[in-house]
Amino acid sequence: MTQPYQARTVRVAAKMSSTRAQFAINFDGPGIDPASIPDPNAAYALDRIGNRGLVLLQAFMDEFEFDEASKTIKFAKVRTDAS
Question: Does residue 83 carry a pLDDT above 70?
Answer without folding.
Answer: no
